[in-house]
Design goal:
single chain, 643 residues, alpha+beta, Heat Shock Protein 90, 5-stranded mixed beta sheet, 23 helices
Length: 643
């Protein structure tokens, strides 16, 4: 006996511990979140929501947040907590308290000067009024929210989401007024925003509302498809409220399609979920759906009982649409039972409620909304016409002045651009002329001419007439080519290579023809068509000769390679096997008389000017060649743009 008692005690104790641990853990998480909220005090909605999202459905925790926020004069936190409490009360159909809480949240949003929290609060108030079928204030609050939202230049994700909420709620107002096509248009606007934000809750809500509108139009198949899409999204976010709403609506479709076997389990499931969530709006509608199903199954006693429960709930929470539906169905039951007087009473009550709803909605919508906005638009149009008539003459005069001022400004601008362009062209032409003159002076170097003629003279003195004539002929050809090329900005590559061959032949006289000069051109290159700046290679060959090879005793070699490995450039390599730049620099530094070479700098300037006509600029690279850490020459790589 004692053992049995001890066992039971331990079982109860362990059960209590098991239940208490998650609660304690949740409380610890909440305390940490509350501390973080007070420390950081986020100013935007998403910042607060990221901290408090797991606790927003707990009224006790939200009251703690409200109290703590007020103590710390944290207006954004107070507004968030009040809106959360308002939503909790709305979901249990306590709409008056919900509206009061949301209005208080709006006052804290005003203190915080936060448009984001104002928009959220206004939308929450509008939703509560809409659930009560009070159309005018619902529309007014949603319109206020939209006006604020559309004035924000860079809306936050929460503001964008609330634009979707406003449009969704306005769509629901049109639903209540049975203007289904206009309602669908509003829902699709909201749906577009929710798709862009990938907000599954918003997608679930809008698909359900579109289904409701199609249901009202009698398009039961389309309505069912949209309800099922909504259910899929609610399953994805694990929303019990969403499932309950979808089950209730899908059950209603099955009823209209006379699929009673399919309808019964889903309607009962919706009722069970509504009771669990304590949502009086859907408790009433679920009891009424169940009663309607039982009428179709000839279960009149059960139907009457469930309809009376639904009617009672609807009366307590002033759900007029549900009162009308329940009364109409109770009238039908009593008519079938032969209780005609009771049936008539219920029927009259149903008609009275429906007429009241429709009358209120039509009056509020037509008189308060349509007329209000139409009158406002008409007044604005009248004012605009009056201003337009008054301003016509002024606009005409102003347009004339603007025309002549524009023509004058255009003339001045054209002259300025012409002069500027002309000056730029002249400056560029002067620069080109200077470069060409410098280039000519560089090629017609007096030392080169003197040395060349002196070498030819030695042939004559030594009675080597054939050599003298041969080299004099080459020298004259070279001078003629240099003079012709100096007049041209560019020349065919073949002409440039021929000129360089002549130049090297003349220079080779002074080296006793010891230099092995080779030109190698890739077969795919059309040297007659490819253009390069004239006499562009001479300074590089001169450097190879006099800095790389002049101080070398034997085995003197220069290779000039032309190839194309990219569509944009023609690549020219000049490779010598001289002493290298470092050794040449040491020799130059040791000379008493130093001659400054400007040929390379002039060449760079000419290449830069040539490249202006192309997308790409020229590329010049000079590399020292080594073998076993010893200098073996110099490689010059010149890439000239061709496209």
């Amino acid at each position: 006996m004692n053992n049995s008692f001890t066992y039971k005690f331990l079982l109860v104790f362990l059960t209590l511990c098991y239940c208490t641990v998650p609660i304690c853990a949740q409380n610890a998480d909440f305390e940490a979140a509350l501390d973080q909220l007070v420390d950081t005090k986020p100013a935007n909605y998403n910042g607060i929501d990221s901290i408090l999202k797991p606790f927003e459905k707990d009224s006790l925790m939200m009251k703690r947040v409200l109290k703590t926020s007020k103590l710390n004069t944290y207006n954004e936190g107070s507004s968030y907590a009040l809106n959360a409490l308002g939503e909790i009360n709305r979901n249990i159909s306590d709409y008056d308290k919900s509206i009061a809480l949301h209005k208080e949240a709006k006052s804290f949003a005003d203190k915080a000067e936060s448009d984001e929290f104002r928009i959220v609060s206004l939308n929450m108030i509008g939703v509560a009024y809409r659930r009560m079928d009070i159309i005018k204030p619902a529309l007014d609050y949603h319109t206020q929210a939209l006006k604020i939202a559309y004035k924000i230049k860079d809306p936050s994700p929460e503001v964008t989401y609330n634009i979707a909420v406003s449009q969704n709620s306005i769509g629901n107002i049109y639903l209540a007024l049975q203007q289904y096509d206009i309602a669908i248009t509003q829902f699709k606007k909201s749906l577009k925003i929710e798709k862009e934000a990938n907000n599954k809750l918003g997608l679930a809500i809008n698909y359900h509302n579109i289904g409701y509108a199609e249901d009202g139009k009698g398009n039961l198949k389309v309505a069912l498809e949209n309800y099922q899409k909504s259910l899929e999204y609610n399953e994805a976010i694990d929303s019990d409220i969403g499932r309950m709403i979808c089950y209730s609506s899908i059950g209603g479709i099955y009823l209209k399609q006379e699929k009673y076997i399919d309808a019964e389990p889903i309607i009962r499931d919706a009722l069970a979920r509504a009771l669990s969530l304590k949502d009086q709006f859907y408790i009433a509608s679920s009891y009424i759906n169940l009663g309607q199903l039982e009428i179709e199954l000839s279960q009149f006693s059960e139907a009457e009982n469930n309809l009376k429960i639904g009617l009672e709930v609807a009366k307590i929470y002033s759900l007029n649409s549900s009162i009308a539906s329940a009364s109409r169905l109770l009238s039908e039951i009593n008519k079938r039972k032969g209780n005609y007087k009771v049936a008539l009473d219920y029927y009259q009550k149903s008609v009275e409620i429906e007429n009241t709803i429709l009358t209120e909605k039509n009056l509020q919508y037509v008189n308060d909304i349509v007329n209000e906005y139409e009158n406002e638009n008409k007044n604005n149009q009248i004012k605009a016409l009056a201003i337009e008539n008054e301003a016509v003459k002024l606009r005409l005069e102003r347009n004339k002045k603007i025309f002549w001022y524009s023509m004058l400004a255009l003339l001045i601008l054209s002259i300025t651009l012409f002069i500027s362009n002309r000056n730029r062209t002249l400056k560029q032409e002067k620069q080109i002329l200077t470069l060409e003159q410098d280039m000519l002076r560089s090629q017609m170097n007096p030392h080169f001419i003197f040395n060349s003629l002196n070498s030819i003279k030695l042939y004559i003195i030594n009675n080597e007439k054939e050599n003298a004539v041969y080299y004099l002929n080459k020298f004259s050809k070279l001078i003629r080519k240099i003079l012709i090329a100096s007049k041209e900005k560019e020349t065919p590559l073949q002409e440039e290579l021929d000129t360089m061959k002549l130049y090297m032949n003349i220079e080779n006289i002074r080296f006793d023809n010891q230099i092995d000069f080779n030109i190698n051109v890739e077969e795919s290159i059309n040297t007659e068509v490819t253009k390069v700046p004239s006499l562009i290679l001479q300074p590089f060959l001169e450097n190879s000769l006099w800095h790389g090879l002049s101080s070398k005793s034997n085995d003197k070699k220069i290779d000039l390679n032309v190839y194309k490995n990219t569509p944009e450039y023609i690549t020219i390599e000049i490779i010598d096997n001289g002493i290298g730049r470092f050794a040449a620099r040491k020799i130059s530094d040791g000379k008493k008389l130093k001659r400054k070479s400007v040929g390379i700098e002039i060449t760079k300037a000419r290449l830069a000017n040539f490249s202006k006509a192309f997308v790409n600029s020229y590329i010049l690279e000079i590399d020292d060649l080594h073998k076993d850490n010893l200098p073996t020459g110099t490689k010059i790589t010149l890439k000239i743009p061709i496209e």
